[in-house]
Amino acid sequence: MQHSFQRAWAAGELSSRYSAENHGALDPPERWPRYRLNPSVRTEPGGIVHTSGIYLPDTDNSCAALLIEGKNTSRAQYLIRYEDPVNEDGRKLYDSPLPVTEWRSTGWTLIERAPGETIPFEAWLGAVDTPPARVPAGEPCPRSGWWHTPARADSRRLFKTGDTFPNIDNSDYGSTFWLWSQDQITPQL
């Protein structure tokens, strides 16, 4: 518990910027517990926490944090932007952009589990920048969303978790593999 107190996750680290390399493979359940904000359990900037738990800061571009009963509220780590540091030769120092943050004083609202309520994985996590691995035809779809195959032009289509990916017969490409589409927006007709 001590290692979690007054810690924060970088914005998107557990969702849209999730890294399997840093956090391990994401093998989520099909349904997640539903959580909600409890506006009756709050603490104001610099105030004392009355109930231990995970709290959401009032400031945007920030992340939830563990606050402990009897302690003063912590400040929130606010995301300003991402940048790509370069060396003297102009080459990037890191493989991915680094967050630029600052600490801000803010109020906090308790996040609590809604008893007996669940939601589907996609509804909870939203878009994930780390795409699933390519999947051969005949195998089940690992994540609901839009997929395409290089074996056929204009092959983008919606699959649900567990659907079997079809094979594309007589393709010049060779074996059929399905790839997660970067565009997860439903097309307008």
Total domain modules: 2
**Percent in strands:** 25-35%
List the secondary-structure elements in sequence, H or E.
HEEEEEEHEEEE
Number of strands: 10
Radius of gyration, in Å, reads: 21 Å
Broad shape: flat
Structural class: mainly beta
Report strand order across the widest sheet. 1-6-2-3
What percent of the residues sit in helical stretches (DSSP H or I)?
Answer: under 10%
Low-confidence stretches: none
The biggest beta sheet reads:
4 strands, antiparallel
Could you give the distance between the termini? Answer: 51 Å
The mean pLDDT is 82
Please work out how many helical segments DSSP would assign.
Answer: 2
Oligomer: single chain
